[in-house]
Give the backbone structure.
Amino acid sequence: MAVDTLTVNGAVGVDHDHRESYLTTGHGILSWLFTLDHKRIGVMYLVAILTSFFLGGVFALLVRTELLTPGQTIMTADAYNKMFTLHGAVMIFLFIIPGIPAALGNFVLPLMLGAKDVALPRLNLTSFWFWMIGAVFSLVSIIVGAVDTGWTFYTPYSTTTSTAVISMTLGVFILGFSSIFTGLNFIVTIHKMRPEGMTWFKMPLFLWGLYSTAIIQVLATPVLGITLLLLIAERALGVGIFDPTLGGDPVLYQHFFWFYSHPAVYIMILPAMGIMSELMSVFSHKHIFGYRFIAWSSIAIAIFSFLVWGHHMFTSGQSGLTNMIFSALTFSVAIPSAVKVFNWLATMYKGSIELAAPMLYALSFLFLFAIGGLTGLFLGALSTDVHLHDTYFVVAHFHYVMFGGTVIAFLGGLHYWWPKMFGRMYSERWAQLAALLVFVGFNLTFFTQFVMGSHGMPRRYYNYLEEFTRFHQASTVGSYVLGLGFFIMAGYLIHSLFRGERASANPWGAATLEWETSSPPPANNFDRELIAGDPYDLESLRYEPAIKGWVRKDPTSIVAAEGGAT
Amino acid sequence: MTASRITDHLVGLAGALPDDRSFWMPPQVSTVAQGVDWLFHFILAISVFFFLLIVAVMVVFIIRYRRRGGRAAEPSPSHNMALEVTWTVIPLLLVVAIFGFGFKGYLDMSTPPANAYEILVDAQKWNWSFTYPNGYVDADLHVPVDRPVRLVLSSQDVIHSLYIPSFRIKMDVVPGRYSKAWFEATQPGEYDLFCAEYCGTSHSDMIANVIVHPVGEFETWLEKASNFLETMTPVEAGRKLYQVRGCQQCHSVDGSAKTGPSFLGIFGHEQALADGSSVIADENYIRESILEPQAKVVAGFDPVMPTYQGRLSDPEISAIIEYLKSLDTTTSEE
Amino acid sequence: MAGHSHDAHHDPDLAHHFESADQQFQSAKLGMWIFLATEILFFGGLFVAYSVYRSNHPEIFIYGHHFLDKGLGALNTVVLIFSSFTIAWAVRAAQLRQIKLLKLLLVATIACAFVFLGVKYVEYSTKWKHGLLWASKYDPHVEDHGEAPHGGEDEAHGAAEMSAETAPSEGNGGAAAATTAAGSAGTEAGAEIDSGTQETPGTPETSPAGEERSNIPVAAEGPGGLAADDGTADHDEVGDEPRKAQIFFSIYFLMTGLHGIHVIGGIVAMLWLLRCAFRGDFDGGHFTRVDMVALYWHVVDLIWIYLFLLLYLIH
Amino acid sequence: MAEHSEGGVHVASLKLLVVVLIALMFGTWLTVSATYVDLGALNIWIGLAIATGKAALVGLYYMHLRWDKPFNAFVFLTAFVLLGLFVGITMMDSAHYQHVIIPDWPNK
C-alpha cells in the first residue's frame, strides 16, 4: 500500500512489476466477463468495438473496391447492396454510437471523478452483455442472408425485401438498450459521485460531453426501440402502421426513425468534442479557453438535436411548412459547434504546443470537422438540399463529421488514454506516420465525393455514369491509404502492449484526476480520497525527467483532508 | 502540405468532366438552377473563408507557439466574454441569411405556375414511365423547352425519388400518394434522370433520359410517337411496349430467368405451373397472365407481378403477344 | 446492490464505491426515474402513431371502439389502480419493516396483475373469434378471405387482393377513386385516359373532396359484410365500416400488447421481491428494491389510465 | 401527515394512500360517465384532463414525487415534454400531407 501512495504521488520512479493493477487482479477469462470493474468493462468494450470497426472497415473497402469501375467489378448488385448496408449498420450501431462513451467513457469517467466505479456497476455489465447479444443478432443476419435495406431500414422497402431484416433490427433494438443503460449510468454517476470540490463547472469538459451525450441516449434511444419494434411487427405480423398497402404511412416511419437517428448523430459527436477539449488544453499546456461557453454549447447541442430531425426529409413528401421549420432549426446547431471550434483555437494561443500523436489527431479534427460542419450549411439550406440530398455530397458530409470528427477524436482519445489503460507507451514515430496516412487517405477518399455529389452522383449506386469513374477511383485509392494507416496503427498499438515502454502516472501533463493514479490504475482506482481543483490548471504541474512524467508542484493540494478511502 | 496536394489532384480530375459544367455544378438547364447555384456558391464562399481562417490560425499558432526547448506557455486570459459573444453572433447572422435565401429558393421550386404542362410519372422497380396528356406512355421524359412542366408522381411498390441534376429538382415518389414536382427547361438537349431513393437490386439502373425539345418540335414528336401502333409493325410495337412498360425489368428475352420467366421461346409451348398443373402458352394464356398475373403462375417464380388491368389496351396486348411469338425459336406449331 | 465480493464492508447493503447509504439510495432512485422516462418515450412512439391516425381518420376510431368492451376496460382500470394502491402500501410496509404485511401486499398486487391479464385474455379471444385483428389479419368474418397468407410481403399482396376484389362493389366514392387511380397508373387505354388525366392534376389539390371521400362511410367499402358482423359489443350503433378500419385494431393490439408485456414484467419483478422478502433481505429496512419495482408498477398503471381513455372511451 | 423512517426517506401515511385510492376510483367513474355526455370535440380534452389529474395523483403521492428530489420529477416530466414535441410536429406534418394520399390505394 505504501508503495502505491508514493507512486501515485509520482514522487518516485515506478516499478510496476511488483504492483497490482486492475489488469492483474483476478485471472482467467471469467474474471473479465463477469467483472463489475468499470475499467475492465471499458477494456472489453474497447476490444469489442474495435473488432466491429475492423469488420465495418473491411465492408467499406469492399464497397470502395466494387466502385473502382462502373458495373460489376468484384460483386453482384445484391451483394453490393448488402455490403453498404452492413458497413453502415455495423459502423453506426456497433462502433460509433458505443465507441467513445462505452469504451473510453467507461474507463475514464469514474477516474476523472476520483471515484471507485460508476454508480451502477451491475447495470454497466448488463449494458456490455446487451451489446454482445445485440451484436450477435446483427451478425447472425449476415449469415442468414444479410440485409439490403440501407442502415435506415426505410419502409416499405424494408417490409417487403426478402433479406434478414428482423434479425438485424432485433439486434439493433437490443443494442439500443445497451446504449440507454450506459447513458443512464453516466447521468447518475455524474450527479451523485462527483468528489469534494468538483462543482458542475469544475467538471472536465469530457464529462460535460459524456453528460450531454447521455441525455440524448436516454431520451432518444427509446424511440428507436419502438420504431424497430413496429418494423419487426410490420414484417412478422403486418400491422400496417407504415405499410401503404395496409393503409399505413411510409413517411410516418421516417419521422419515427429520424426522431432518434438525428439526435444519434450528436450521440456520436458530443463525446468527441469532449475529448477535443481535453486534448487541445493538455497538449497546448494551457488552460482551456472559454470553459463555460464550451460546457453550455454541449448542452445546447443536446437540446437542439431533438428539434432538427425533419431535415432528413426535405424531399420525402414532408409538408413545406414542416420543411421550413426544420430548416430554420437546423441552423441553430451550427452556432454552438462554431463556438467550440473557435474556443479550441483560442486555447492554443500563447500555449506551448506539443505535437504528440493525440494532438495530431486533435489538429486533424479541427481541419476535418471544419469541412464537415461547413458543408452542413449546404444541406441545411432548403433549395440547395433539394439538389444535394441523397447524393455523394451527403455521404462526404457525414463522413467528414462522423469519421473526420468522431473517429479522429476517438483515435486521439485512444492514444491519449492508452498509457493509462495499459501502462505502456506506444511508438511515437509510428503513431505520427499513421496519423498522417489516415489524414491524407481520408481526404482523398471523401473530398472527391463532394464533387461527385454536387454533380448529381446519387448515393447507394452500384453502377454509375462513365464521367464519375476517375472520382470513384481516386476515392478508392484514398480508402486504401486509409486502410494502410489503420493497419500500421494496429501494429504499433499491439506491439506496445508487450514491448512498450512503461508509462508514468501522468505522461502528458494533464490536471484531471485520472492522472493522479498509477498507470494502469489499481482495481479500486485510488488509494486516497481526492479533492478536485480546476481540471485545466496546468501550471500546477511540473515535468519530472526521472520518471518521464508530470507531478504536482504541491502533491498535497489534491488530497482530501481526512485522506485514506474507507 | 496535403491540402494543396488534394486540390491539385482535383483540378486534374475536373478535366474528367464534360465541359458544359462548372467545377462544382452540372449545367443549368432549368429556371431554378441559377438561383440554387448562386446560393451554393454563396455558402461556398462563406465556407472557404472560415475554413481558411481556421486552418491559417491553426498553422500560425502551431509554428509560433510550438513547444521547443522546454519553452513554457505564456499567461493569457482563459476567457473573454466580448470575443466569445462576437464569434457566437457573427455565425448566427450568417446562418440566418443562408436560411432565408434557401427558403426563398425552395418556395420558387415548390409552387408551379398555373399553366403548367402535365405529365404523369409512374415509378416501379426499376423503371420510369411517363404518361402524356393523350395517354401515350414513354420510358423517357420528353418535354418542350421554355414551358413549365408539372410532374405528378406515383409509385407502384416502394419509395423512389425522381432526380434531374441539371434541373436541380428532386422529389420522392411514395407509394400510396401523389407527389408533385415542376420545372421549366431553358435549353434543348438530353439530360440524366436518376432514382435517388434506394429501391433495391437495380436501383442504380433506374435511370431515364430527359429530352428537352426545341420550340415546336415537342408536339410533332408526341404526335409521331403516340401512334406507334399504326406506324410500327405489331412485332416492333410489341418490342417497344416490352421495353417501356416495365416487362423487361423482370422478363428476359435471352432465356435467362429474372424475377419472372424469360419470354424466349415460351409461346405455344407447355408451361409447368406453380400449382403442379400445366398450360399451353397461347394468346389467351398470355392475355390472362398480363391482366391477372396471379391466376396461373409459372412454377419456380413468386406471384409478384402487378396486374396490367386497365394499364394496357387490347391492341397493345395483341402487339405484345405478336412480339412474344417472334421470340419463338422453334418452328413447331401446335 | 452489493459491490465487489472481494471488498469486505461493514454494511452488507452498501456497495464499496458509495460513501453513504443515502448516496446509494438516491443513485438507484435517480437511475430508476431516468429509466421510467425512457419507458414513457418508448410507449410514446405508439401514442404518436395513435395521434396521427386519430387526428387524420377519426372515423376509424369511432367505428372501431364499438368493438371494445367498455365494461371490461373499466374493470381492468379499477383492478390496476387498486394494485397501484397495494404496492404503494407495500413500500410503506417495507419502510416500516412490517415484513408480514409486505408479503401479503405483494401477493395482493400480483393477484391483481393476473386478474388484469385474465380479463385481457377474454377480450383478445373475442376479437380473435370475430377476426377483428391487426391490419394483415383483419378479416371480420369473410370466409373466402379467411386465409390471409403469412410473412410481410405476401401479406401485403394478400391484403391488396382482398381489397382489390371488393373494389367493384364501391359506390360513387369508389368511382371517383377509380379515375384518380387511372391518373396514378396513367396508362389507361382510350377515352378513360382523358378523364384520368384531366382528373389527376386536380386530384392532389381537391383535398376537401379527397377527405370527404375517405370519411363518408360508403356502404360495402372494404371487406364487404362487416356491417352484418354479429355478436360484438353494442353493435346497434355501429355504422358502416370506414376505410383503414384495420389500423384501429393494429394500434389497439400494439398498445395493449406492449402494455401487457410490461404487466408480465411487473409480475416477474414482484415475484422476485417476494422471494427476497422470504429470504429476509428487507428485515434490515433496506427497501430500495421494493421502492424501485413500485415505481415501475405505477408507470404501468399510468399508461393504462391513458390507454383506457384513448381506446375504449372514444365518443 | 407522514412519519419518517431512520433513513430520512419519506413514508406516506396509510390514510393518505387510501384517500388517493378513493380519488382515483372517483376519477375513473367520472371519465367513463363523461363519455356518455356528448360535448363534441370537448369530450377527448375533458377525458385527457381527468386522466392527467389521476396521473398527477399517482405521481405525487404513490410515487412520492411530492417529497422526492425535484430533479427526479424534472427528469420524468422532460420525457413528456419531448413526447409532446414529437406528437405535435408529426401530427402537424401528417395533417398537411393527408390530401395527397390516394384514399383507396392500392385498389386500381
About this structure: The radius of gyration of chain A is 23 Å. Residues 77-112 of chain A form the longest helix (36 residues). The beta strands of chain A are 424-425, 501-502, 541-544, 549-552.
